Fold GMC family oxidoreductase N-terminal domain-containing protein.
Amino acid sequence: MPAHPVIAVVGSGPIGSAYARVLLEELPDARVVMFEAGPQLTPRPGASVRNIADPEAKALARQKSQGPQSGALRASLGIPEGVVVEGMFTARQGTHLLDFGGEGSAHAAQFPAAAAATNVGGQGAHWTCAIPRPAFSEKIPFIDDDEWEELVEAAEGLLHHQAAAFADSPIGGAIRTLLDREFGAVLPDGYGVGTLPVAGDPQPDGSMVWAGADMVLGPLIEAGTDEASRFELRDLTLVRRIEHEGGVVSGVTVEDLRTGQTSFVAADLVVVAADAFRSPQLLWASGIRPAALGRYLTEHHVVITTIALDADRMGGLVTDEQLESELARRSLHAADPVAAVNRIPFSEPDHPYSLQVMYAENPPFQLDPSDPQAGNRWGYVNMGYGVRKHPRVEDGVTFSDEEVDYRGFPNFTIEYELTDAENAEISAATARLRRAGAALGAFVAPPRLLPNGSSLHYMGTMRMGTVDDGTSVADPWSRVWSFDNLVVGGNALIPTANTMNPTLTSVAIAVRGARAAAARLRAEE
Ligand code: FAD
């Protein structure tokens, strides 16, 4: 092993953070330098902005993450802050569309809601924190079950997994009972209606401190620890290029976005975890172009609805006293609307979908006060089915050697189409959503399919595989084929068709990749 190996990590989201943590714990003499293109939002690096109580501070943190669509660039497009123009797609708060319509925008007409976050903690500063495990064919076929169980437990530890958050909420319990009455009989054992596992620390008052990359980094950002002395996070620092020769990476060329200065940072190992579009873009820009790079793009399609919970049905299961005490508890945490999280997981062969059910006191949009469902004392659920997309080489991103994007990287175009089989599963999931909604109450918003890209869970563009046959970018330990010391991480590695939130899976894959990379560095001794 080099006496004091230096590891460069590109991207500060949950996956880059998992690599940094595991590598520093495995290699007591190593140093990690993490590069992040966006700004640090919170005093504790990578914390979830959902934990910010002050609404103005929360809005500012989100705006700072929104890259080209906020601030000066948005103004240059003639769109004042806060204004949504008809026909324009908007990104979820804290994220920015890749195809934002201005100069240097990506081209994503077939995947219009594709978005990213550019900030310390990445999308992990904005995420919902749902961390279900993959099941049946969603799992990585070439990692055996015993190893997978250990990896996923390690990932759950890094993410501060909670199996039963809000499990004591009587309303959450009543929602589960009603859904179970509707669907329970036909769901297999172990895959019925239940609570949705989430990432964070429950507090004694019943609220949650949601997990961000900060919890994954753990000791790396605690003052006075050995790991902290060997960890450096450089925000507003864009990695421009991975330098390499003959399959060996020597380091990265970075641009300090505060000064515009470019410099080279030597590294013994480079880990690229810069999301499912910008990681392959960086590889492409660096002349690393395996045939599968950017291809096999998948997400899970989302059919959603909002329901006003029915007073009679809920009242049959929850006493008035319980409702009042739940409302009193909720009023302590007005800034964090989610009060119970439930789900029906993916199972095969009969339930190839994931249902996610979030209970909140208010609907996610303003209801006209004259609407009969406005001000519903029992509250609302926002729920949606995730529906899978099967990997195909035709779906994916192509990069241009002629046109550059707003960051000066090869611009890209996303090509993507749903097949008849996928449309059929979307129709079946929509029918189920109607049943689920009718079981719980009245429709405030009818079931609808969100535009492609809305899941924010983009997979497959740097998929892992067992052989270097042109259908994968990385080996089973996440190392880029034909490279000694270049590792990739993130949802882009997932080679399967998935219906659920992928971050837990990607952290588990990262734990495996980091341990293998540490073993290789040790073997070089
Ligand atoms: P990211 O978190 O996207 O981080 C990548 C980072 O790399 C970014 O900060 C980016 O600025 C940086 N970067 C890019 N290019 C460069 C470069 N050249 N140089 C330096 N830095 C660079 N997932 C779930 O599993 N469950 C959920 O409930 C869930 N809910 C979500 C809700 C929302 C609103 C959002 C936005 C996402 C949600 N996700 C959820 C997705 C989840 O956040 C991502 O799966 C996760 O953050 C991916 O981690 P990552 O580290 O691979 O990438």
Q: What stands out?
A: Residues 10-16, 35-38, 92, 95, 117-119, 122-124, 126-131, 238-239, 273-275, 278, 282, 456-457, 490-491, 501-503, 506 surround flavin-adenine dinucleotide (CB under 6 Å). The longest strand covers residues 237-245.
